[in-house]
């Protein structure tokens, strides 16, 4: 089972080709260039240099959310374009779960966090089993103070993973929690994690198609919130 995975949910951008759990190739950039300029050339170059073609791919996977609204749209649009011509099945992967897969070997509790702004983080919690993940809560946008109280209830050491890990570390430490930063090379979003998350969807029959593939933003954009506020004000 060859899985082509795309990750463009935050500042970094990556693509990976995996065969089941084995990583065949991966390309990663954190250059500050827009993903609309880097993602598709990255995919094309990676496939060319590892000696594989899109025709050999069985599943196209993408980090579908949460994350940057623009980044998610770019990634999902690219995945739809790659999958649609040959009607390849798709995997819409949780960005947070994909990050956690990079630490599934640790046997510890994992706290995946991304900066959601407005004093919130996008978060999901997992228990790593050594060869898999046990989800402890759904993906959500949660206040950092609320997350701190939840982690106190758990009482177990936490590995922070994600581009919001450093943001959360000091606050959670000051709350008396035993939190640890994932090492830098495993901390950020990567397409390998997306591919590993997608493999679980393959095994449990949860794939979709290009037509149904869509981002999962987890909350309204600022523009949508402002529009709704204006409509409510008009109605009063």
From TrEMBL:
Pfam families, per database record: TsaD
CDD domains linked to this entry: ASKHA_NBD_TsaB
Cellular component GO terms, alphabetical: cytosol
Domain Gcp-like, first and last residues per copy: 34-158
GO biological process: tRNA threonylcarbamoyladenosine modification
Alphabetical list of PANTHER family matching this protein: TRNA N6-ADENOSINE THREONYLCARBAMOYLTRANSFERASE, TRNA THREONYLCARBAMOYLADENOSINE BIOSYNTHESIS PROTEIN TSAB
Name used for this protein in its record: tRNA (Adenosine(37)-N6)-threonylcarbamoyltransferase complex dimerization subunit type 1 TsaB
Species in which this protein is naturally found: Lawsonibacter hominis
Lineage of the organism: Bacteria, Bacillati, Bacillota, Clostridia, Eubacteriales
Gene name of the record: tsaB
């Amino acid at each position: 089972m060859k899985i082509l995975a795309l990750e463009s949910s935050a500042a970094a951008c990556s693509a990976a080709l995996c065969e089941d759990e084995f990583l065949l190739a991966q390309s990663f950039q954190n250059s500050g260039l827009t993903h609309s300029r880097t993602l598709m050339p990255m995919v094309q170059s990676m496939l060319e240099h590892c000696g594989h073609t899109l025709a050999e791919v069985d599943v196209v996977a993408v980090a579908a959310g949460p994350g940057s609204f623009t980044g998610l749209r770019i990634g999902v649009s690219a995945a739809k374009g790659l999958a649609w011509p040959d009607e390849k099945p798709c995997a819409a992967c949780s960005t947070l779960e994909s990050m956690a897969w990079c630490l599934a070997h640790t046997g510890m509790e994992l706290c995946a966090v991304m900066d959601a702004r407005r004093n919130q983080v996008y978060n999901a919690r997992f228990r790593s089993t050594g060869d898999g993940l046990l989800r402890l809560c759904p993906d959500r946008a949660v206040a950092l103070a609320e997350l701190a109280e939840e982690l106190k209830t758990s009482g177990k050491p936490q590995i922070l993973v994600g581009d919001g890990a450093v943001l959360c570390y000091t606050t959670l430490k000051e709350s008396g929690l035993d939190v640890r930063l994932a090492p830098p090379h495993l901390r950020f979003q990567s397409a390998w994690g997306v591919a590993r998350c997608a493999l679980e969807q393959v095994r449990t029959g949860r794939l979709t198609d290009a037509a149904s593939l869509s981002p999962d933003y987890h909350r309204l954009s600022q523009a949508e919130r402002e529009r709704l506020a204006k409509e409510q004000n008009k109605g009063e």
